[in-house]
């Protein structure tokens, strides 16, 4: 099979995801308003100066709004990943992906195209949020807006791969909301998105250990450091490793010989 067909598949899935996003304006505004509401509430309730080492080895004092914005950027990626996995459940059962999964193209490529298209849409939403936050006087270094792009892509791919893995195990849309409540909220609140890890450690060492083991925490830290022009190597390694693990498990889960995706709805064995 020629490489042109692979590229055509990538273009088609990306274009479809973009058109779906443009046609569902409520999806864009909900993704934009949600972090802004969180920023408004937490900025009003916790408007104080944090002495945190965002850029090692320097001690940097930042306002709470500047600290929490990277966490809210990661929240945009997280919710977009879960929404994409929700659409994947629908498409797999009765939409376009039902036909694409039976095409000659390998499933890892189809899933990768779907994942990449969803991540590109999520990154656009993050930059729209950063633009609004700029008017909120949350203004990282200008170069940080460019340097944060690889961090956003890595974090988005990791969370999107997790969403694909979850979508492979969900057979009915009615079960999706319950599963997401056990994924989104624990991942978000048990992280450094809203509070520094050193303050969490002072409050509860057990909760600190859970936050430190949470891949979403490392996605937040990766974005936070990149937004200020630095690299957090530990977080980059954790996010990259989790991305590969979640992606490999998702491909295996969508393998009809292993995950059983292709056998759903098949006629019963006459024997």
Automatic annotation (TrEMBL):
Localization per Swiss-Prot or TrEMBL = Cell inner membrane; Membrane
Record flagged with keyword Transport: yes
**InterPro entries to which the protein is assigned, alphabetical:** ABC2_TM, ABC2_TM_bact-type, ABC_2_transport, Alc_ABC_transptr_permease, Nod_factor_ABC_transporter
User: Which PROSITE patterns does the record associate with it?
Assistant: ABC_TM2 (PS51012)
One Gene Ontology cellular component: ATP-binding cassette (ABC) transporter complex
Q: Which residues cross the membrane?
A: 36-55, 67-90, 111-136, 142-166, 178-198, 234-254
| One Pfam match | ABC2_membrane
The alphabetized UniProt keywords are:
Cell membrane, Membrane, Transmembrane, Transmembrane helix, Transport
Q: Which family is this protein grouped under?
A: Belongs to the ABC-2 integral membrane protein family.
What is the protein's given name?
A: Transport permease protein
Q: Which organism is it from?
A: Teichococcus oryzae
